[in-house]
Amino acid sequence: TSELYGKVQEIPQKETTPFYPRSPYGVAKIYSYWIVKNYREAYNLHASNGILFNHEAERRGETFVTRKITMGAAEIALGRKKDIVLGNMDAFRDWGFAGDYVEAMWLMTQQREGGDYVIGTGQQHSIGEFLDVAFTHVGILDWKKYVLSDPRFKRPAELHSLCGDSTRAKEILGWKPKTSFEDLVIMMVDADIERLK
What we know:
By secondary structure, the protein is of the alpha/beta class. Helices cover 40% and strands 11% of the residues.
Protein backbone atom coordinates (compact mmCIF):
# COMPACT_ATOMS: atom_id res chain seq x y z
CA THR A 1 0.00 0.00 0.00
CA SER A 2 1.10 3.55 -0.69
CA GLU A 3 0.13 4.23 2.93
CA LEU A 4 3.63 2.99 3.80
CA TYR A 5 4.80 6.45 2.72
CA GLY A 6 2.20 8.35 4.77
CA LYS A 7 3.80 11.69 5.60
CA VAL A 8 5.71 11.72 2.36
CA GLN A 9 9.41 12.52 2.29
CA GLU A 10 9.51 13.09 -1.48
CA ILE A 11 7.12 13.33 -4.42
CA PRO A 12 6.72 11.07 -6.31
CA GLN A 13 7.41 8.08 -4.08
CA LYS A 14 9.65 5.27 -5.31
CA GLU A 15 11.19 2.10 -3.89
CA THR A 16 13.92 4.06 -2.07
CA THR A 17 11.60 6.69 -0.53
CA PRO A 18 11.65 6.41 3.30
CA PHE A 19 8.46 5.09 4.90
CA TYR A 20 6.50 7.30 7.34
CA PRO A 21 3.09 5.64 7.90
CA ARG A 22 0.28 7.71 9.44
CA SER A 23 -2.27 5.00 10.30
CA PRO A 24 -2.38 1.62 12.07
CA TYR A 25 -3.05 0.11 8.63
CA GLY A 26 0.14 1.65 7.21
CA VAL A 27 2.17 0.56 10.24
CA ALA A 28 0.92 -3.02 9.90
CA LYS A 29 1.83 -3.05 6.21
CA ILE A 30 5.41 -2.07 7.10
CA TYR A 31 5.69 -5.40 8.92
CA SER A 32 4.42 -7.21 5.80
CA TYR A 33 6.92 -5.38 3.61
CA TRP A 34 9.90 -6.20 5.81
CA ILE A 35 8.96 -9.84 6.49
CA VAL A 36 8.72 -10.48 2.74
CA LYS A 37 12.10 -8.82 2.19
CA ASN A 38 13.61 -10.71 5.14
CA TYR A 39 12.44 -14.13 3.97
CA ARG A 40 13.50 -13.39 0.38
CA GLU A 41 17.01 -12.55 1.51
CA ALA A 42 17.36 -15.16 4.27
CA TYR A 43 15.92 -18.15 2.39
CA ASN A 44 16.39 -17.10 -1.24
CA LEU A 45 12.62 -17.17 -1.80
CA HIS A 46 10.94 -15.82 -4.90
CA ALA A 47 8.95 -13.22 -2.97
CA SER A 48 8.08 -9.70 -4.09
CA ASN A 49 6.61 -6.58 -2.56
CA GLY A 50 4.21 -4.68 -4.74
CA ILE A 51 3.74 -1.24 -3.22
CA LEU A 52 0.41 -0.53 -4.86
CA PHE A 53 -1.01 2.96 -4.95
CA ASN A 54 -4.79 3.35 -4.80
CA HIS A 55 -6.17 0.67 -7.11
CA GLU A 56 -9.84 1.09 -7.81
CA ALA A 57 -12.62 -0.77 -9.59
CA GLU A 58 -16.36 -1.26 -9.44
CA ARG A 59 -15.95 -3.78 -6.58
CA ARG A 60 -14.25 -1.29 -4.25
CA GLY A 61 -15.95 -1.20 -0.82
CA GLU A 62 -18.67 1.41 -0.40
CA THR A 63 -16.94 3.04 2.58
CA PHE A 64 -14.00 4.17 0.42
CA VAL A 65 -14.20 7.73 -0.88
CA THR A 66 -14.10 6.62 -4.52
CA ARG A 67 -17.17 4.41 -4.16
CA LYS A 68 -18.92 7.00 -1.99
CA ILE A 69 -18.51 9.36 -4.92
CA THR A 70 -19.49 6.97 -7.71
CA MET A 71 -22.44 5.54 -5.76
CA GLY A 72 -23.51 9.05 -4.74
CA ALA A 73 -23.38 10.35 -8.31
CA ALA A 74 -25.39 7.35 -9.52
CA GLU A 75 -27.99 7.64 -6.73
CA ILE A 76 -28.39 11.40 -7.20
CA ALA A 77 -28.71 11.02 -10.99
CA LEU A 78 -31.39 8.37 -10.50
CA GLY A 79 -33.25 10.53 -7.95
CA ARG A 80 -32.60 8.16 -5.03
CA LYS A 81 -30.49 10.53 -2.96
CA LYS A 82 -30.14 14.29 -2.47
CA ASP A 83 -26.50 14.56 -1.41
CA ILE A 84 -23.38 12.74 -0.25
CA VAL A 85 -21.14 13.42 2.75
CA LEU A 86 -17.35 13.18 2.49
CA GLY A 87 -14.43 14.02 4.76
CA ASN A 88 -11.20 15.62 3.53
CA MET A 89 -11.81 17.33 0.20
CA ASP A 90 -8.19 18.50 -0.21
CA ALA A 91 -6.42 15.16 -0.59
CA PHE A 92 -4.55 14.18 -3.75
CA ARG A 93 -4.14 10.53 -4.73
CA ASP A 94 -2.63 8.41 -7.45
CA TRP A 95 -5.69 6.39 -8.54
CA GLY A 96 -5.33 3.53 -11.01
CA PHE A 97 -7.42 0.62 -12.28
CA ALA A 98 -7.15 -2.54 -10.15
CA GLY A 99 -7.08 -4.73 -13.27
CA ASP A 100 -3.91 -3.00 -14.48
CA TYR A 101 -2.34 -3.51 -11.06
CA VAL A 102 -3.18 -7.22 -11.02
CA GLU A 103 -1.27 -7.49 -14.29
CA ALA A 104 1.74 -5.89 -12.53
CA MET A 105 1.48 -8.45 -9.72
CA TRP A 106 1.43 -11.28 -12.26
CA LEU A 107 4.47 -9.82 -14.02
CA MET A 108 6.35 -9.81 -10.69
CA THR A 109 5.79 -13.56 -10.38
CA GLN A 110 7.20 -14.11 -13.88
CA GLN A 111 10.64 -12.68 -13.05
CA ARG A 112 13.68 -14.85 -12.30
CA GLU A 113 13.99 -13.25 -8.86
CA GLY A 114 11.68 -11.48 -6.45
CA GLY A 115 11.94 -7.74 -5.94
CA ASP A 116 10.20 -4.64 -4.67
CA TYR A 117 8.13 -2.52 -7.06
CA VAL A 118 6.09 0.67 -6.78
CA ILE A 119 2.92 0.33 -8.85
CA GLY A 120 1.09 3.56 -9.63
CA THR A 121 0.09 5.80 -12.49
CA GLY A 122 2.49 8.64 -11.67
CA GLN A 123 -0.43 11.08 -11.79
CA GLN A 124 -2.15 12.79 -8.89
CA HIS A 125 -5.77 13.82 -8.89
CA SER A 126 -7.76 15.64 -6.23
CA ILE A 127 -11.03 14.54 -4.67
CA GLY A 128 -12.56 17.48 -6.57
CA GLU A 129 -11.30 16.10 -9.90
CA PHE A 130 -12.80 12.71 -9.06
CA LEU A 131 -16.10 14.43 -8.29
CA ASP A 132 -15.91 16.46 -11.53
CA VAL A 133 -15.56 13.36 -13.71
CA ALA A 134 -18.18 11.31 -11.84
CA PHE A 135 -20.87 13.99 -11.70
CA THR A 136 -20.25 15.33 -15.21
CA HIS A 137 -20.66 11.78 -16.51
CA VAL A 138 -24.21 11.65 -15.06
CA GLY A 139 -25.06 15.11 -16.41
CA ILE A 140 -24.49 17.16 -13.24
CA LEU A 141 -22.06 20.01 -13.91
CA ASP A 142 -21.92 21.51 -10.40
CA TRP A 143 -21.27 18.76 -7.85
CA LYS A 144 -20.79 21.33 -5.07
CA LYS A 145 -24.58 21.57 -4.70
CA TYR A 146 -24.71 17.88 -3.77
CA VAL A 147 -21.55 17.24 -1.72
CA LEU A 148 -21.15 18.03 1.97
CA SER A 149 -17.99 17.79 4.07
CA ASP A 150 -18.13 16.42 7.62
CA PRO A 151 -15.09 16.53 9.95
CA ARG A 152 -16.13 13.15 11.41
CA PHE A 153 -14.88 11.52 8.20
CA LYS A 154 -11.44 13.14 8.34
CA ARG A 155 -8.44 11.13 9.53
CA PRO A 156 -6.54 12.36 12.59
CA ALA A 157 -3.28 12.19 10.59
CA GLU A 158 -4.32 12.83 6.99
CA LEU A 159 -2.31 11.78 3.94
CA HIS A 160 -2.18 14.71 1.55
CA SER A 161 -0.06 13.82 -1.44
CA LEU A 162 0.55 10.27 -2.65
CA CYS A 163 1.98 9.71 -6.13
CA GLY A 164 3.88 6.62 -7.32
CA ASP A 165 6.98 6.51 -9.50
CA SER A 166 6.73 3.18 -11.35
CA THR A 167 9.95 3.60 -13.34
CA ARG A 168 11.42 0.37 -11.95
CA ALA A 169 8.28 -1.62 -12.82
CA LYS A 170 8.36 -0.18 -16.33
CA GLU A 171 12.05 -0.98 -16.84
CA ILE A 172 12.11 -4.47 -15.29
CA LEU A 173 8.55 -5.75 -15.69
CA GLY A 174 7.64 -3.87 -18.86
CA TRP A 175 4.54 -2.64 -17.04
CA LYS A 176 2.61 0.57 -17.43
CA PRO A 177 -1.01 1.42 -16.64
CA LYS A 178 -3.47 1.15 -19.52
CA THR A 179 -6.61 2.73 -18.05
CA SER A 180 -6.87 6.51 -17.77
CA PHE A 181 -8.15 8.26 -14.66
CA GLU A 182 -11.25 9.46 -16.52
CA ASP A 183 -12.04 6.00 -17.90
CA LEU A 184 -11.64 4.49 -14.43
CA VAL A 185 -14.11 6.91 -12.83
CA ILE A 186 -16.63 6.48 -15.66
CA MET A 187 -16.34 2.68 -15.45
CA MET A 188 -17.11 2.81 -11.72
CA VAL A 189 -20.05 5.21 -12.13
CA ASP A 190 -21.54 3.10 -14.93
CA ALA A 191 -21.24 -0.05 -12.83
CA ASP A 192 -23.03 1.65 -9.93
CA ILE A 193 -25.82 2.92 -12.18
CA GLU A 194 -26.33 -0.60 -13.55
CA ARG A 195 -26.29 -2.08 -10.05
CA LEU A 196 -28.92 0.42 -8.86
CA LYS A 197 -31.18 -0.20 -11.85
